[in-house]
Amino acid sequence: MKYLTADQLQDICTRILDAAGSPHAESEAVCEVLVRANLFGHDSHGVMRIPQYVGQIRSGAIRPGTPIEIERETPASAVIQAHQGWGMVIARQAMRLAIEKARQVAVGTVVVRGSQHVGRVGEYPTMAAEEGMIGMAVVNSYGTTGSVAPFGGAERRLSPNPIAFAMPSGGPWPVMVDITTSVFPEGKIRVTRYAGKQLPEGVIVDAGGNPTTDPAAFYASPPGALLPLGGIVGHKGFALGIVAELLAGALSGAGVTGKERDETGNGVYFQAINIDALLPYDDFIHTVQEQIAWVKSARPQPGVSEVLFPGEPEYRTAQQRSAHGIPVEDSIWHEITETAETLGVSIEA
Fold it and tell me: Does the 2-281+325-342 domain belong in CATH 3.30.1370.60?
């Protein structure tokens, strides 16, 4: 296991993507999102993605430097065609546009089609929270058969389809919910496999539909499948996954899971809500603070030190990793260094 600072990872990541042909400003933006994912403890969406992205640049799946196109627009909404550019760059532009619309007309909604992987979805609603607004993000993956079994099913039919919300709390961290509609995102299975560990029970089934804790079963031929969020009430996570599929994929025009297509990527649905248009901002914050205090006053269960509020675990992880370094599994570091070597980039850590 290696421990690196956020600045070290930002520098390494940026130099690799620059060498792969990405414009420097876009490389920096992409790496900021990746490193922040690691910093907040979402390693499945962090720098482990660097080799994957370099491969996608080489294949032409990611097209760095491609400008976005606004295909339709109203004072409250917009439809963006991303033309397979960097997902993180486009997603930031889309949320900024939603925020600006919310300033003018209370609620701004922006959908995106033709985007590549946007990374950790919680990154973008947080942008709205930082502007004193409520942010919402829903993302699907189109052009593939999926990786998640429907409730009661044994085969892949949906993607993990993350949903995220963020809003200001009046404290050092925003209220933030960032979840997949499957038990795990695919990246966490990859992280578990890199670490040589077994998965918890109830995360995946093998190709026969049988429960398994072996991450290799997910990547076997034929492959296994993720299970929808919820365990014995997995019909709830399954239903949320369908809603995400239709909001991000159907409404944006990006498409939904189904037969494999030559072009794959993320469909995106973003919304920003201007709190001040509905309620004085200070009144909202006062109520949020009351809710945080009330929830955290609950007596912890045996073996639990304290009750944490949504957004608080990420904040604490970021504080700890800022002080002591961001952990990177040796197998992940090996893949990153191999990728750097193929591009003539020298990295030291």
Answer: yes
